[in-house]
Amino acid sequence: LQEIPDILSAEFAADPYPAYRAMREKEPLIWHEATRSYLVSRYEDVERIFKDRQSEFTTDNYDWQLEPVHGRTILQMSGREHAVRRALVAPAFRGGDLREKFMPVIERNSRELIDAFRHSGSADIVTDYATRFPVDVIADMLGLDKADHDRFHGWYTAVIAFLGNLSGDPEVTAAGERTRVEFAEYMLPIIRERREHLGDDLLSTLCAAEVDGVRMSDEDIKAFCSLLLAAGGETTDKAIAGILANLLLHPDQLAAVREDRSLISAAFAETLRYTPPVHMIMRQAATDVTVSGGTIPAGATVTCLIGAANRDEDRYRDPDRFDIFREDLSTTSAFSAAADHLAFALGRHFCVGALLARAEVETGLNQLLDAMPDMRLADGFDPVEQGVFTRGPQSLPVRFTPVAA
Ligand code: HEM
Fold first, then answer.
1. How far is the CA of 276 from the centre of ligand 1 (A)?
2. Mind telling me which residue stretches traverse the membrane in this protein (predicted)?
Protein backbone atom coordinates (compact mmCIF):
# COMPACT_ATOMS: atom_id res chain seq x y z
CA LEU A 1 0.00 0.00 0.00
CA GLN A 2 3.03 2.27 -0.41
CA GLU A 3 1.42 5.16 -2.26
CA ILE A 4 -2.03 4.52 -0.90
CA PRO A 5 -2.61 5.81 2.64
CA ASP A 6 -3.79 3.13 5.02
CA ILE A 7 -7.57 3.19 5.52
CA LEU A 8 -7.05 3.45 9.27
CA SER A 9 -4.61 6.40 9.01
CA ALA A 10 -5.39 10.02 9.91
CA GLU A 11 -4.52 11.06 6.34
CA PHE A 12 -7.18 8.70 4.97
CA ALA A 13 -9.78 9.85 7.52
CA ALA A 14 -9.18 13.49 6.54
CA ASP A 15 -9.92 12.78 2.86
CA PRO A 16 -10.36 9.19 1.68
CA TYR A 17 -11.15 10.05 -1.94
CA PRO A 18 -7.58 10.32 -3.33
CA ALA A 19 -6.80 6.92 -1.75
CA TYR A 20 -9.98 5.43 -3.20
CA ARG A 21 -8.96 6.67 -6.64
CA ALA A 22 -5.46 5.22 -6.31
CA MET A 23 -6.92 1.87 -5.23
CA ARG A 24 -9.39 1.77 -8.13
CA GLU A 25 -6.61 2.56 -10.59
CA LYS A 26 -3.71 0.54 -9.20
CA GLU A 27 -4.91 -2.02 -6.66
CA PRO A 28 -8.63 -2.75 -7.16
CA LEU A 29 -8.22 -5.84 -4.97
CA ILE A 30 -5.74 -5.52 -2.16
CA TRP A 31 -5.09 -7.30 1.15
CA HIS A 32 -5.33 -5.01 4.18
CA GLU A 33 -3.56 -6.41 7.20
CA ALA A 34 -5.07 -4.19 9.92
CA THR A 35 -8.68 -5.14 9.11
CA ARG A 36 -7.56 -8.59 7.93
CA SER A 37 -9.68 -8.18 4.84
CA TYR A 38 -9.46 -7.70 1.09
CA LEU A 39 -10.39 -4.17 -0.01
CA VAL A 40 -12.52 -3.91 -3.17
CA SER A 41 -12.95 -0.46 -4.71
CA ARG A 42 -14.34 -0.62 -8.26
CA TYR A 43 -18.06 -0.10 -8.90
CA GLU A 44 -18.55 -3.25 -10.95
CA ASP A 45 -16.81 -5.43 -8.34
CA VAL A 46 -18.72 -4.00 -5.37
CA GLU A 47 -21.99 -4.23 -7.31
CA ARG A 48 -21.29 -7.87 -8.15
CA ILE A 49 -20.45 -8.76 -4.54
CA PHE A 50 -23.64 -7.09 -3.26
CA LYS A 51 -25.83 -8.72 -5.91
CA ASP A 52 -24.08 -12.04 -5.31
CA ARG A 53 -25.93 -13.93 -8.03
CA GLN A 54 -23.74 -17.05 -7.60
CA SER A 55 -24.07 -17.14 -3.77
CA GLU A 56 -20.31 -16.69 -3.38
CA PHE A 57 -20.52 -14.50 -0.26
CA THR A 58 -22.08 -14.71 3.18
CA THR A 59 -22.62 -12.18 5.96
CA ASP A 60 -21.09 -14.51 8.59
CA ASN A 61 -18.58 -11.72 9.34
CA TYR A 62 -21.38 -9.89 11.14
CA ASP A 63 -21.52 -12.53 13.87
CA TRP A 64 -18.56 -11.09 15.75
CA GLN A 65 -19.30 -7.48 14.78
CA LEU A 66 -22.98 -7.27 15.69
CA GLU A 67 -23.72 -10.15 18.06
CA PRO A 68 -22.16 -8.56 21.21
CA VAL A 69 -24.28 -5.45 20.97
CA HIS A 70 -27.48 -6.46 19.15
CA GLY A 71 -27.82 -10.23 19.43
CA ARG A 72 -28.87 -12.04 16.24
CA THR A 73 -30.27 -9.78 13.50
CA ILE A 74 -31.27 -10.20 9.86
CA LEU A 75 -27.89 -8.85 8.77
CA GLN A 76 -26.27 -11.99 10.17
CA MET A 77 -28.72 -14.33 8.46
CA SER A 78 -28.66 -15.87 5.00
CA GLY A 79 -30.72 -18.16 2.77
CA ARG A 80 -34.26 -19.05 3.74
CA GLU A 81 -33.86 -17.88 7.32
CA HIS A 82 -32.98 -14.39 6.05
CA ALA A 83 -35.72 -14.36 3.40
CA VAL A 84 -38.44 -15.21 5.94
CA ARG A 85 -37.15 -12.79 8.60
CA ARG A 86 -36.92 -10.04 6.03
CA ALA A 87 -40.43 -10.70 4.76
CA LEU A 88 -41.64 -10.36 8.37
CA VAL A 89 -40.22 -6.86 8.84
CA ALA A 90 -39.96 -5.27 5.39
CA PRO A 91 -43.66 -4.44 4.71
CA ALA A 92 -43.74 -2.09 7.70
CA PHE A 93 -41.20 0.18 5.99
CA ARG A 94 -42.98 0.82 2.71
CA GLY A 95 -46.38 1.34 1.09
CA GLY A 96 -49.44 2.05 3.19
CA ASP A 97 -47.74 1.72 6.58
CA LEU A 98 -45.06 4.22 5.60
CA ARG A 99 -47.51 6.67 4.01
CA GLU A 100 -50.35 6.51 6.47
CA LYS A 101 -48.88 5.54 9.82
CA PHE A 102 -45.34 6.84 9.74
CA MET A 103 -45.35 9.99 7.57
CA PRO A 104 -47.21 11.89 10.33
CA VAL A 105 -44.60 10.64 12.82
CA ILE A 106 -41.79 11.87 10.55
CA GLU A 107 -43.44 15.26 10.02
CA ARG A 108 -44.20 15.77 13.71
CA ASN A 109 -40.74 14.87 14.99
CA SER A 110 -38.97 17.03 12.42
CA ARG A 111 -41.22 20.00 13.20
CA GLU A 112 -40.69 19.72 16.95
CA LEU A 113 -36.92 19.83 16.56
CA ILE A 114 -37.01 22.78 14.14
CA ASP A 115 -39.43 24.69 16.38
CA ALA A 116 -36.87 24.48 19.17
CA PHE A 117 -34.30 26.60 17.25
CA ARG A 118 -36.08 28.54 14.49
CA HIS A 119 -36.54 31.59 16.74
CA SER A 120 -32.88 31.85 17.61
CA GLY A 121 -31.23 32.76 14.31
CA SER A 122 -28.57 30.06 14.58
CA ALA A 123 -28.32 26.30 14.97
CA ASP A 124 -25.96 23.40 14.48
CA ILE A 125 -27.89 21.15 12.11
CA VAL A 126 -25.85 18.12 13.19
CA THR A 127 -26.34 18.35 16.96
CA ASP A 128 -29.68 20.23 17.09
CA TYR A 129 -31.40 18.26 14.38
CA ALA A 130 -29.75 15.43 12.42
CA THR A 131 -28.51 13.32 15.34
CA ARG A 132 -31.91 13.53 17.07
CA PHE A 133 -34.45 13.28 14.25
CA PRO A 134 -34.09 9.68 12.92
CA VAL A 135 -33.75 8.19 16.41
CA ASP A 136 -36.81 10.14 17.62
CA VAL A 137 -38.67 8.82 14.57
CA ILE A 138 -37.74 5.19 15.29
CA ALA A 139 -38.69 5.51 18.98
CA ASP A 140 -41.99 7.14 18.03
CA MET A 141 -42.70 4.59 15.28
CA LEU A 142 -42.17 1.82 17.83
CA GLY A 143 -44.71 3.54 20.08
CA LEU A 144 -42.30 4.22 22.94
CA ASP A 145 -42.99 6.88 25.55
CA LYS A 146 -41.68 10.32 24.68
CA ALA A 147 -40.17 10.43 28.16
CA ASP A 148 -37.95 7.50 27.18
CA HIS A 149 -36.53 9.10 24.02
CA ASP A 150 -33.46 10.41 25.85
CA ARG A 151 -32.61 6.94 27.13
CA PHE A 152 -33.09 5.63 23.61
CA HIS A 153 -30.62 8.28 22.42
CA GLY A 154 -28.12 7.23 25.06
CA TRP A 155 -28.25 3.63 23.84
CA TYR A 156 -27.97 4.80 20.25
CA THR A 157 -24.81 6.76 21.06
CA ALA A 158 -23.28 3.77 22.88
CA VAL A 159 -24.16 1.37 20.05
CA ILE A 160 -22.63 3.51 17.30
CA ALA A 161 -19.54 4.15 19.43
CA PHE A 162 -19.22 0.36 19.87
CA LEU A 163 -19.56 -0.31 16.14
CA GLY A 164 -17.06 2.43 15.26
CA ASN A 165 -14.54 1.46 17.96
CA LEU A 166 -11.62 0.92 15.57
CA SER A 167 -8.97 1.22 18.28
CA GLY A 168 -10.72 -1.32 20.52
CA ASP A 169 -11.06 1.09 23.48
CA PRO A 170 -12.15 -1.26 26.33
CA GLU A 171 -14.46 1.36 27.90
CA VAL A 172 -16.37 1.77 24.66
CA THR A 173 -16.61 -2.02 24.31
CA ALA A 174 -17.90 -2.36 27.88
CA ALA A 175 -20.46 0.45 27.35
CA GLY A 176 -21.71 -1.29 24.18
CA GLU A 177 -22.10 -4.61 25.98
CA ARG A 178 -23.87 -2.89 28.89
CA THR A 179 -26.25 -1.32 26.39
CA ARG A 180 -27.27 -4.75 25.14
CA VAL A 181 -28.31 -5.69 28.70
CA GLU A 182 -30.05 -2.40 29.50
CA PHE A 183 -31.83 -2.34 26.17
CA ALA A 184 -33.14 -5.88 26.72
CA GLU A 185 -34.30 -5.00 30.26
CA TYR A 186 -36.18 -2.03 28.84
CA MET A 187 -37.61 -3.52 25.63
CA LEU A 188 -38.61 -7.08 26.61
CA PRO A 189 -41.36 -6.07 29.10
CA ILE A 190 -42.72 -3.53 26.58
CA ILE A 191 -42.78 -6.20 23.85
CA ARG A 192 -44.62 -8.63 26.17
CA GLU A 193 -47.11 -5.94 27.12
CA ARG A 194 -47.63 -4.93 23.49
CA ARG A 195 -48.43 -8.53 22.52
CA GLU A 196 -51.34 -8.36 24.97
CA HIS A 197 -52.60 -5.00 23.67
CA LEU A 198 -51.75 -4.59 20.01
CA GLY A 199 -51.88 -1.00 18.75
CA ASP A 200 -51.15 0.87 15.55
CA ASP A 201 -47.39 1.17 16.04
CA LEU A 202 -44.38 -0.62 14.53
CA LEU A 203 -43.84 -2.78 17.61
CA SER A 204 -47.39 -4.12 17.33
CA THR A 205 -46.87 -4.79 13.61
CA LEU A 206 -43.70 -6.77 14.42
CA CYS A 207 -45.50 -8.71 17.20
CA ALA A 208 -48.34 -9.67 14.85
CA ALA A 209 -46.27 -10.37 11.72
CA GLU A 210 -46.41 -13.94 10.40
CA VAL A 211 -44.88 -15.47 7.26
CA ASP A 212 -45.15 -19.18 6.39
CA GLY A 213 -46.22 -19.90 9.95
CA VAL A 214 -43.10 -18.19 11.36
CA ARG A 215 -43.39 -15.38 13.92
CA MET A 216 -40.74 -13.40 15.72
CA SER A 217 -39.87 -14.23 19.31
CA ASP A 218 -39.54 -11.46 21.89
CA GLU A 219 -35.77 -11.79 21.57
CA ASP A 220 -35.94 -11.49 17.74
CA ILE A 221 -37.99 -8.30 18.02
CA LYS A 222 -35.68 -6.83 20.61
CA ALA A 223 -32.61 -7.57 18.43
CA PHE A 224 -34.32 -6.03 15.41
CA CYS A 225 -35.20 -2.86 17.36
CA SER A 226 -31.60 -2.66 18.53
CA LEU A 227 -30.42 -2.98 14.90
CA LEU A 228 -32.80 -0.17 13.93
CA LEU A 229 -30.95 2.16 16.29
CA ALA A 230 -27.73 1.79 14.33
CA ALA A 231 -29.05 0.93 10.86
CA GLY A 232 -31.76 3.58 10.79
CA GLY A 233 -30.27 6.21 13.10
CA GLU A 234 -26.67 6.96 12.31
CA THR A 235 -27.09 6.49 8.57
CA THR A 236 -30.07 8.78 8.12
CA ASP A 237 -28.52 11.28 10.50
CA LYS A 238 -25.46 11.51 8.22
CA ALA A 239 -27.61 11.64 5.08
CA ILE A 240 -29.54 14.67 6.35
CA ALA A 241 -26.44 16.57 7.41
CA GLY A 242 -24.78 15.49 4.15
CA ILE A 243 -27.53 16.68 1.82
CA LEU A 244 -27.65 20.06 3.54
CA ALA A 245 -23.85 20.46 3.60
CA ASN A 246 -23.60 19.53 -0.10
CA LEU A 247 -26.32 22.04 -1.03
CA LEU A 248 -24.94 24.84 1.16
CA LEU A 249 -21.56 24.33 -0.50
CA HIS A 250 -23.22 24.56 -3.95
CA PRO A 251 -25.45 27.64 -3.66
CA ASP A 252 -26.72 27.52 -7.25
CA GLN A 253 -27.99 23.96 -6.72
CA LEU A 254 -29.49 24.97 -3.36
CA ALA A 255 -31.33 27.84 -5.08
CA ALA A 256 -32.67 25.40 -7.71
CA VAL A 257 -33.91 23.04 -4.98
CA ARG A 258 -35.54 25.90 -3.03
CA GLU A 259 -37.35 26.90 -6.20
CA ASP A 260 -38.39 23.39 -7.29
CA ARG A 261 -38.76 20.99 -4.38
CA SER A 262 -39.22 18.02 -6.70
CA LEU A 263 -35.42 18.23 -7.15
CA ILE A 264 -34.95 17.02 -3.57
CA SER A 265 -35.08 13.37 -4.65
CA ALA A 266 -32.26 14.03 -7.13
CA ALA A 267 -30.30 15.83 -4.39
CA PHE A 268 -30.89 12.84 -2.08
CA ALA A 269 -29.66 10.30 -4.65
CA GLU A 270 -26.64 12.45 -5.55
CA THR A 271 -25.78 12.96 -1.87
CA LEU A 272 -25.86 9.20 -1.29
CA ARG A 273 -23.58 8.68 -4.30
CA TYR A 274 -21.19 11.54 -3.57
CA THR A 275 -21.02 11.34 0.23
CA PRO A 276 -22.52 7.98 1.29
CA PRO A 277 -23.18 7.67 5.05
CA VAL A 278 -21.86 4.08 5.03
CA HIS A 279 -18.44 3.87 3.34
CA MET A 280 -17.61 0.22 4.00
CA ILE A 281 -19.57 -3.02 4.21
CA MET A 282 -18.01 -6.40 4.85
CA ARG A 283 -18.74 -9.85 3.47
CA GLN A 284 -17.13 -13.26 3.78
CA ALA A 285 -16.17 -15.35 0.74
CA ALA A 286 -17.93 -18.73 0.77
CA THR A 287 -15.66 -20.07 -1.96
CA ASP A 288 -12.56 -18.90 -3.87
CA VAL A 289 -13.69 -15.86 -5.88
CA THR A 290 -11.88 -14.00 -8.67
CA VAL A 291 -12.26 -10.22 -8.46
CA SER A 292 -10.42 -7.75 -10.73
CA GLY A 293 -7.99 -10.48 -11.74
CA GLY A 294 -7.06 -11.49 -8.18
CA THR A 295 -8.34 -14.30 -5.95
CA ILE A 296 -10.18 -13.93 -2.68
CA PRO A 297 -9.74 -17.26 -0.92
CA ALA A 298 -12.72 -19.05 0.63
CA GLY A 299 -13.32 -17.88 4.20
CA ALA A 300 -11.61 -14.50 3.73
CA THR A 301 -13.29 -11.25 4.70
CA VAL A 302 -13.93 -8.65 1.99
CA THR A 303 -14.41 -4.93 2.64
CA CYS A 304 -16.59 -3.38 -0.07
CA LEU A 305 -15.61 0.29 -0.36
CA ILE A 306 -18.92 1.96 -1.20
CA GLY A 307 -17.30 5.40 -0.97
CA ALA A 308 -14.80 4.37 -3.66
CA ALA A 309 -17.26 2.54 -5.93
CA ASN A 310 -19.64 5.51 -5.93
CA ARG A 311 -16.87 7.69 -7.38
CA ASP A 312 -15.72 5.25 -10.07
CA GLU A 313 -14.97 7.13 -13.28
CA ASP A 314 -15.85 4.01 -15.29
CA ARG A 315 -19.39 4.37 -13.97
CA TYR A 316 -19.97 8.13 -13.49
CA ARG A 317 -18.88 11.10 -15.55
CA ASP A 318 -16.86 13.58 -13.53
CA PRO A 319 -17.48 11.52 -10.35
CA ASP A 320 -15.87 14.00 -7.93
CA ARG A 321 -18.40 16.68 -8.81
CA PHE A 322 -21.59 17.06 -6.75
CA ASP A 323 -24.25 17.52 -9.41
CA ILE A 324 -27.93 16.97 -8.73
CA PHE A 325 -28.60 17.29 -12.47
CA ARG A 326 -26.31 14.44 -13.52
CA GLU A 327 -27.91 12.09 -16.01
CA ASP A 328 -26.06 8.94 -15.02
CA LEU A 329 -27.96 8.54 -11.74
CA SER A 330 -31.60 7.52 -11.59
CA THR A 331 -33.89 9.26 -9.12
CA THR A 332 -37.37 8.42 -10.23
CA SER A 333 -38.50 4.84 -9.55
CA ALA A 334 -39.73 3.79 -6.12
CA PHE A 335 -36.47 2.04 -5.39
CA SER A 336 -34.45 4.56 -7.36
CA ALA A 337 -32.19 5.03 -4.45
CA ALA A 338 -31.11 1.46 -5.16
CA ALA A 339 -30.94 1.66 -8.89
CA ASP A 340 -27.65 3.38 -9.37
CA HIS A 341 -25.49 4.21 -6.41
CA LEU A 342 -24.41 1.61 -3.87
CA ALA A 343 -25.12 3.53 -0.65
CA PHE A 344 -27.98 1.18 0.32
CA ALA A 345 -26.08 -1.90 -0.93
CA LEU A 346 -27.94 -4.18 -3.37
CA GLY A 347 -29.31 -7.70 -3.46
CA ARG A 348 -30.62 -9.69 -0.53
CA HIS A 349 -29.49 -7.30 2.21
CA PHE A 350 -30.49 -4.13 0.34
CA CYS A 351 -31.47 -1.56 2.97
CA VAL A 352 -34.91 -2.34 4.40
CA GLY A 353 -35.32 1.30 5.40
CA ALA A 354 -34.41 2.96 2.07
CA LEU A 355 -37.87 4.39 1.47
CA LEU A 356 -38.23 5.44 5.10
CA ALA A 357 -34.83 7.15 4.89
CA ARG A 358 -35.88 8.94 1.72
CA ALA A 359 -39.14 10.06 3.35
CA GLU A 360 -37.25 11.36 6.40
CA VAL A 361 -34.61 13.24 4.41
CA GLU A 362 -37.12 14.72 1.94
CA THR A 363 -39.53 15.79 4.68
CA GLY A 364 -36.74 17.09 6.88
CA LEU A 365 -35.11 19.10 4.11
CA ASN A 366 -38.43 20.58 2.99
CA GLN A 367 -39.23 21.67 6.54
CA LEU A 368 -35.73 23.10 7.10
CA LEU A 369 -35.91 25.11 3.86
CA ASP A 370 -39.41 26.39 4.72
CA ALA A 371 -38.46 27.38 8.25
CA MET A 372 -35.22 29.13 7.24
CA PRO A 373 -35.57 30.74 3.81
CA ASP A 374 -32.17 32.46 4.10
CA MET A 375 -30.23 29.69 5.86
CA ARG A 376 -26.47 29.93 5.23
CA LEU A 377 -23.32 28.40 6.68
CA ALA A 378 -21.94 30.30 9.68
CA ASP A 379 -19.28 32.79 8.53
CA GLY A 380 -16.02 31.16 7.58
CA PHE A 381 -17.25 27.66 8.41
CA ASP A 382 -16.14 24.82 6.17
CA PRO A 383 -17.95 21.52 6.89
CA VAL A 384 -15.54 18.73 7.80
CA GLU A 385 -16.51 15.10 7.42
CA GLN A 386 -15.61 12.63 10.10
CA GLY A 387 -15.53 8.85 10.22
CA VAL A 388 -14.10 5.92 8.28
CA PHE A 389 -16.70 3.13 8.20
CA THR A 390 -19.54 5.62 8.47
CA ARG A 391 -18.88 9.20 7.52
CA GLY A 392 -20.62 12.58 7.60
CA PRO A 393 -20.29 16.23 8.60
CA GLN A 394 -19.04 16.58 12.15
CA SER A 395 -20.92 19.82 12.67
CA LEU A 396 -22.97 22.19 10.51
CA PRO A 397 -23.49 25.61 12.11
CA VAL A 398 -25.95 27.76 10.16
CA ARG A 399 -27.33 31.28 10.49
CA PHE A 400 -30.73 32.59 9.40
CA THR A 401 -33.22 35.34 10.11
CA PRO A 402 -35.09 34.21 13.23
CA VAL A 403 -38.82 33.70 12.91
CA ALA A 404 -40.83 35.74 15.42
CA ALA A 405 -42.13 33.50 18.23
C1 HEM B 1 -29.24 -2.56 5.49
C2 HEM B 1 -27.52 1.84 4.40
C3 HEM B 1 -31.39 3.90 6.48
C4 HEM B 1 -32.65 -0.43 8.22
C5 HEM B 1 -28.48 -1.52 4.98
C6 HEM B 1 -27.27 -1.72 4.19
C7 HEM B 1 -26.79 -0.49 3.91
C8 HEM B 1 -27.68 0.48 4.50
C9 HEM B 1 -25.52 -0.19 3.12
C10 HEM B 1 -26.72 -3.07 3.74
C11 HEM B 1 -25.86 -3.70 4.76
C12 HEM B 1 -25.23 -4.95 4.21
O13 HEM B 1 -25.53 -5.38 3.10
O14 HEM B 1 -24.38 -5.54 4.88
C15 HEM B 1 -28.43 2.78 4.84
C16 HEM B 1 -28.36 4.21 4.59
C17 HEM B 1 -29.45 4.78 5.17
C18 HEM B 1 -30.21 3.72 5.80
C19 HEM B 1 -27.25 4.89 3.80
C20 HEM B 1 -29.88 6.22 5.22
C21 HEM B 1 -29.65 7.09 4.27
C22 HEM B 1 -32.08 2.91 7.12
C23 HEM B 1 -33.29 3.09 7.89
C24 HEM B 1 -33.64 1.85 8.38
C25 HEM B 1 -32.65 0.91 7.93
C26 HEM B 1 -34.03 4.41 8.09
C27 HEM B 1 -34.81 1.42 9.20
C28 HEM B 1 -35.46 2.02 10.02
C29 HEM B 1 -31.84 -1.38 7.63
C30 HEM B 1 -31.93 -2.80 7.90
C31 HEM B 1 -30.95 -3.42 7.10
C32 HEM B 1 -30.28 -2.35 6.38
C33 HEM B 1 -32.89 -3.48 8.87
C34 HEM B 1 -30.63 -4.90 7.03
C35 HEM B 1 -31.29 -5.54 5.82
C36 HEM B 1 -30.98 -7.00 5.64
O37 HEM B 1 -30.02 -7.53 6.21
O38 HEM B 1 -31.72 -7.65 4.89
N39 HEM B 1 -28.71 -0.18 5.13
N40 HEM B 1 -29.56 2.53 5.58
N41 HEM B 1 -31.73 1.57 7.17
N42 HEM B 1 -30.85 -1.13 6.71
FE43 HEM B 1 -30.27 0.69 6.05
1. 12
2. none
